[in-house]
Design a protein that fits this description.
By secondary structure, the chain is of the alpha+beta class. It has six helices and 16 strands. 28% of the residues lie in helices and 27% in strands. β7 (124-129) and β8 (134-136) form a beta hairpin. It comes from Loktanella gaetbuli.
Length: 256
């Protein structure tokens, strides 16, 4: 049952927050990853180490996919897999901002069945398990009912507004931004924004936890072509993501 894993994920996320906050605002050591994949800090690695030890000890039969762990293809044969981003929004973390998150999910046969997005610097715990709804700090949350794209508030980055992405011009929604993709998904699940979208290839660990939270909040989650998302794939990437409430079909229809 999906809900069995959720308390484990919540407890692990809180423990991750204790570690990350001990580094936050204190100039942690930073490295640049190979292949232009961005920065990583000593905090990312400390959180990843703790999560690996804690979660894998609790569920040794589960596979493991994390941004900060070399990929082990044995995960592809596992029915259930932890999909982890130890710190999503590392650049914001390095700056000392608050908009970064721990994103922890369990995926079963390619579908996220439990997930948490925890922002320790904001004391926000978004959580969901398949068939059990979505919450923020224990309070039920629901996606927006706004279907008019001209009135919508959408979390996205400026490159996604390039005209070539859109069939009839960029829709006249109001753009917002947060550093963490997982946090953008959580805000769409909460209905504080009507949707989020990213049209570039997206890593599974940024999306898995948010996907089940949006879905359980009554929303739609697809790739940029309107197809269902599948996780624990060999490539580890998705063809963009659109997630949110009633405006998602209009956004999909507007894309080139």
């Amino acid at each position: 049952m999906p809900a069995i894993d959720l308390p484990l994920l919540i407890d692990a996320a809180r423990a991750a927050g204790d570690i990350s906050l001990s580094f936050h605002g204190r100039s942690p050591t930073v490295w640049e990853k190979d292949g232009d994949q961005g920065p990583v800090t000593e905090a990312d690695l400390a959180v990843n180490r703790m999560l690996s030890e804690r979660l894998r000890a609790a569920r040794p039969e589960y596979g493991w996919l994390s941004e900060e762990t070399p990929d082990d293809k044995d995960r592809l044969a596992a029915q259930r897999v932890f999909v982890i981003d130890p710190i999503d929004g590392t650049r914001a973390f390095i700056r000392g901002d608050k908009d970064w998150a721990h994103a922890i999910a369990v995926v079963e046969d390619g579908v996220p069945i439990a997930g948490v997005v925890y922002l320790p610097a904001r004391s926000l715990m978004f959580a969901a398990a398949l068939g059990h709804g979505a919450t923020c700090n224990g309070r039920p949350i629901r996606v927006s009912g706004q279907s008019n794209v001209a009135r919508a508030q959408v979390l996205t980055t400026k490159p996604n507004l390039a005209p070539h992405h859109w069939s009839g011009g960029v829709p006249p929604f109001t753009r917002g931004f947060r550093s963490s993709l997982a946090y953008r998904m959580a805000l769409a699940a909460e209905g504080k924004f009507d949707a989020m979208l990213t049209l570039r290839p997206s890593w599974e660990w940024d999306i898995a936890a948010g996907a089940v939270i949006v879905s359980e909040a009554g929303g739609d989650v697809t790739d940029r072509r309107g197809r269902p998302l599948r996780f624990n794939t060999p490539k580890r990437q998705l063809d963009g993501v659109i997630a949110g409430g009633a405006v998602v079909p209009a956004l999909l229809a507007a894309l080139a």
